[in-house]
Specification:
This protein is α+β, with helices and mostly antiparallel strands. It has a domain at 44-139: Porin (Beta Barrel), CATH 2.40.160. It has helices spanning 2-16, 27-43, and strands spanning 47-56, 60-71, 74-79, 88-96, 99-106, 111-120, 123-128, 132-139. Strands 3-2-1-8-7-6-5-4 form an 8-stranded antiparallel beta sheet, with helices on one face. A hairpin with a 3-residue loop joins strand 1 and strand 2 (60-71). The protein is elongated.
Length: 140
Amino acid sequence: MKNKILLLALILTFSSCGIFISVTDTGSTVNEIQAETSKDGVTKFLGKYEITIFNLPEVGEMNLSMNVFNNGDELKTEFLEGSEDTGFEILKTEIEEDILYIDIYVESYGVNVNFEIYVEGSTVSGYLADMFELEGTITY
């Protein structure tokens, strides 16, 4: 019985010593890495988009040209020449979890929906209103 108590005491002593291990300050390194990643995460979405939205009701396919750019501290999106008469009004542009969201108002239906855009290199894919697939390219 004494051996078991002694063994238990040794195990508790060695396992509790782990709380006294000092850790070097790597917080600044982690923060710097995260800041660089977020900067790259924003810049990869900036540029001119040429996209096609498939299977829209009453329209079928729709081609759009738009530009995403920084305006001070916020992202902005504008439709380029030839795409202004889409019936979409751009409300807000933001990036969440490496996805570009462009909130729009669809005048003909009176609803707010969004573009959900994924960028891999110069290839663009995603959805409009979570229902209609889109594909295209981005140039920087």
